[in-house]
Amino acid sequence: MSNIPAELKYIASHEWLRLEDDGTITVGITDHAQDLLGDVVFVELPDVGDIIAVDDEISVVESVKAASDVYAPISGEVVEINEALEDDPEIINSDPYGEGWFFRMKPDNIADYEALMTADEYENDL
Does 1 score more than 70 pLDDT? Predict the structure, then answer.
């Protein structure tokens, strides 16, 4: 079974979210997603300042197997991107919940975050 940290929130399209101390939310793809993709060779990230709505296509991950869209898990504004992924996208494979994060956002409504799947719910959805 894939690694599914209990402290994170999840959505069915295999993105994870972590609430940071400053109220921003960090977003990435799950260990399960990176495993399905295989070796990641490129990632297209949103721009800082982008206003995103839930279910918007906000990133693209390309691997040796396929290209996959990443969807906005909640609405808000992108406040930071992980620029390290531009030169070293394989970080997503080696550390999807740590250094392999995609972007940070300021949520429109924190209740949207709270309503997302827990680790147990996500695992049961796999």
Answer: no
Three state DSSP letters for the chain: CCCCCCCCEECCCCEEEEECCCCCEEEEECHHHHHHHCCEEEEECCCCCCEECCCCEEEEEEECCCEEEEECCCCEEEEEECCHHHHCCCHHHHCCCCCCCCEEEEECCHHHHHCCECHHHHHHHC
Distance CA 102, CA 97 (A): 10
Mean pLDDT across the stretch 76-83? 98
Q: How confident is the model at residue 3, as a pLDDT? A: 87
Average pLDDT for the chain: 95
Identity of residue 109: N
Q: Quote the pTM value.
A: 0.95
Distance of CA 7 to the CA centre of its chain: 14
